[in-house]
Amino acid sequence: MSVKAFKLVSAVEREMLMGDKSYINIECIECCGKNLYIGTNDCFIYHFLLDEKISTAGKITFAATKQLHKYLGLKKPVSELKAASALTRLLVLCDNTITLVNMMNLEPVPTGARIKGAVTFAVNENPVSGDPFCVEVCIISVKRRTIQMFMVFEDRVQIVKEVFTPEQPCAVAVDGYYLCLALTTQYIILNYNTGVSQDLFPYCSDEKRPIVKRIGRQEFLLAGPGGLGMFATVDGISQRAPVHWSENVIGAALCFPYVVALDDEFITVHSMLDQQQKQTLPFKEGHILQDFEGKVIVATNKGVYILVPLPLEKQIQDLLASHRVEEALVLAKGARRNIPKEKFQVMYKRILQQAGFIQFAQLQFLEAKELFR
Q1: Residue 264 pLDDT > 80, yes or no?
Q2: How far apart are CA 324 and CA 335, in angstroms?
Q3: Mind listing the pLDDT tens digit for each residue in 7-38?
Q4: Which residues form the CNH domain (predicted)?
């Protein structure tokens, strides 16, 4: 049964990006605060400012204002963008090279600092160096079966470690010293400091695109066999039950308490609390789904959209109105980490009371008694 957890709102229309140039495609996106960056197949970076507007009726819309665009001078697509806001730098992967550019004017740093030979890269959101003016970056190298760790400063880069893997890696996420890697035939956890690795489960990267996503401290979300979204800790165990995706998931994102997945026809929303599918949104030709500081963004080749979460209280009230007491209580308990303690206690008491009256009306007196108590 469905819950209205998110609304899909347009953020950047195709005309704003490409006008009448139909050959331009969106390759990658990055969002940092109000700054939205888009990398295209014709080697441009576009910078927009996103303004969220709420109408008197509570309807949310986004107004994107184009700041500037910059040609990187190559005939290659911009394949990845990552913001390092502490350094006011944007890390740009194009033609196997990561270039550092200024977040505001998109100019390359004067020193010309860059990382060469990168297939893809990930930023360590749980860094080990303790230096606030440094970003730790892990790259999958163009060298066979090689991972490299770098420290990126405002105007220079420094290699820290090179690690060899048992098979060719094709996707990576980082947490502290731990790398979660999709290899050719399996997922592994690798501690790049000690070199100790742990097999997770088999996976064939030739048949499907692997998904490796850090979702919290020492925990990752992976696209597993049989269309399962699997959770794994750095110890190689799973503390949550898997969610059932379709076989051809392209991307996944987390917006607690939901895991959002994209395939070639739909955006699906599963609860991490009871693993049930809660919402399905038709979405054709999507090829990017990412979350940025709690903001979930999806994109087609031509446009960018934001998945706006409905307030959890509203979702809980909708469930109670449908007499789905169990689900409402599970969601209410899960909401504890998103709501200040005092406010949560008042809200939770009211929900227990409402749930009690619903059970009472359905003549479930024992259950009602427990809820009232």
Answers
A1: yes
A2: 17
A3: 999 998 877 777 777 788 999 999 999 999 99
A4: 23-296
Q: Token pair for residue 352?
A: 């227990």
3: nearest Cα among 261, 313, 354: 313
Interatomic CA distance for residues 149 and 192, integer angstroms: 9
Distance CA 24, CA 19 (A): 9
Q: Which residues pair with 228 in a beta bridge?
A: 244
Which amino acid is it at 144?
Answer: R
CA distances in angstroms from 64 to 12, 28, 47, 270, listed in the order given:
6, 17, 10, 29
Q: Of 138, 120, 119, 118, whose CA–CA distance to 128 is shortest?
A: 138
Distance CA(45)–CA(68), nearest Å, equals 8
Characterise 17 by phi-psi region: left (phi > 0), alpha (psi -120 to 50), beta (else). alpha
The DSSP secondary structure of 64-101, one letter per residue, reads EEEEEEEE-SSSS-EEEEEEEGGGTEEEEEETTEEEEE
Residue for token pair 């919290």: 216
1 vs 245: CA distance, rounded Å: 16
Q: Which residues, in sequence order, are CB contacts of 59 under 8 Å at separation 6+? A: none
pLDDT digits (tens, 9 = 90+) for 74-112: 889 999 999 998 899 999 999 999 999 999 999 999 998
DSSP-assigned letters across all residues of 263-322:
-SSEEEEEETTT--EEEEEE-TT--EEEEETTEEEEE-SS-EEEEEEPPHHHHHHHHHHT
Q: Which residue ranges does the chain devote to CATH 2.130.10.10?
A: 6-309
What's the pTM? 0.86
User: Domain 6-309 in CATH: superfamily?
Assistant: YVTN repeat-like/Quinoprotein amine dehydrogenase (2.130.10.10)
Element (H, E) at 349: helix 341-361
